[in-house]
Design brief:
3 helices; 24% strand; 30% helix; globular; four-stranded antiparallel beta sheet; alpha+beta; single chain; 102 residues
Length: 102
């Protein structure tokens, strides 16, 4: 067993980061070497929106994140019922290149 696994990972969470940032739209782009996830806050009736946070991930970490999110959504739905999906056509976005919305 490696030293890291024996000791665990000490993760620091500052008060500012602990407050979180609200996002109701995510735009995902990728290249051969990275995934870029922009978290955006869209306000009703406002034609402009700001990126609140950008996270850059390796493809391997993006896949681990996808699996972790799927696992957590399944657990949430088992406790609270099915999450209703919204119409993905409500926010037409096209920035060119490979893009997904979440």
């Amino acid at each position: 067993m490696s030293e890291e696994k024996k000791q665990g990972l000490n993760i620091e969470l500052t008060e500012e980061v602990a407050e979180g940032t609200y996002s109701n739209l995510a735009i995902i782009n990728h290249s051969p070497s990275e995934f870029v996830v922009d978290f955006i806050q869209v306000m009703p009736g406002v034609p402009k929106a700001k990126v609140k946070s950008r996270i850059v991930l390796t493809p391997q970490h993006a896949k681990r994140l996808m699996k972790a999110l799927a696992d957590n959504v399944s657990k949430f739905e088992a406790q609270h019922g099915t999450i209703k999906d919204v119409d993905p056509n409500l926010v037409p976005l096209s920035f060119g290149g490979p893009t997904a919305e979440a």
